[in-house]
Amino acid sequence: MRQIIALGGGGFSMEPENPLLDRYILNQANKTNPKICFVPTASGDSDNYISRYYNFFEKQNCRPSHLSLFRPPTRDLESFLLEKDIIYVGGGNTKNLLVLWKEWGIDIFLKKAWENGILLAGISAGSICWFEEGVTDSYGDGLEPLKCMGFIKGSNCPHYDGEAERKPSYHKLIETNKIKPGIAVDDGVAIHYINQDIYKIVSSRLNAKAYKVFYDEQVKEIELETQFLGSI
């Protein structure tokens, strides 16, 4: 079973007092004490980001580690990744992430991990990267389409409700055929894919949603059923 959990926003880095999405990710490994590895490439292996990761996950029932490409833990990065239960990719600059991964062969190792049943997860850049295309601010000025790894068909737009320019930019890119139709995801929402199909959409925020966005004479948006993980 191949699994990917793509977060539009939220988790330990955006809402550290709200553990709902990250605990959902841990539970999907079906292990009592899963090995989870954080990959902070998109942030330039930010020490602060890595610290926030450990601050959260060291308090959970799991064995946390991280993979730095600036200070590699081992020469054999493939074996390092393939012995994990969960690989969790952080946010930041998606373009840089993809370039570095290709140079180091991480893209190949991650595909092998996915095919071997290791759960892949990520937020923002760590969400976009799994799709064919994503909406990114990697170029520093405005939002643009970016070709990604293509484990999941279509495009992905994170932070759909969290950043004012996300929704109009995504609609315009779809309308002008500059990006494939796809899934837009609010902050606090995670889409759980099994194989390449949506299995479940969950949220840590009561009114946060995900949407199918496509063009049919005009840009259309269909709200997808989302399960709130908290208590109402």
List the helices and strands and how they pair.
Blueprint: E1 3-7, H1 11-14, H2 20-27, E2 35-39, H3 47-57, E3 63-66, H4 77-82, E4 86-89, H5 94-104, H6 106-115, E5 119-123, H7 125-128, E6 131-136, E7 144-147, E8 152-157, H8 166-175, E9 182-185, E10 189-194, E11 197-203, E12 210-215, E13 219-224, E14 227-228
Parallel strand pairs: 1-5, 2-3, 2-4, 4-5, 6-8, 8-9, 11-14
Antiparallel strand pairs: 1-10, 6-7, 9-12, 10-11, 12-13
How do you describe this structure in short?
By secondary structure, the chain is of the alpha/beta class. It is built from eight helices and 14 strands. 28% of the residues lie in helices and 30% in strands.
How are strands sequenced across the largest beta sheet? 3-2-4-5-1-10-11-14
Structural class of the helix and strand makeup?
A: alpha/beta
Average of pLDDT: 96
Given the structure, what is the number of helices?
8
What is the count of β-strands?
14
Radius of gyration: 16 Å
Q: Please state the overall shape, judged from the principal axes of the Cα atoms.
A: globular
> What is the chain-wise order of helices and strands?
EHHEHEHEHHEHEEEHEEEEEE
Query: Hey, roughly how much beta strand do the residues contain?
Result: 25-35%
The poorly predicted ranges are none
Query: Biggest sheet: strands, sense, closure?
Result: 8 strands, mixed
Give the distance, in angstroms, between the N- and C-terminal Cα atoms.
32 Å
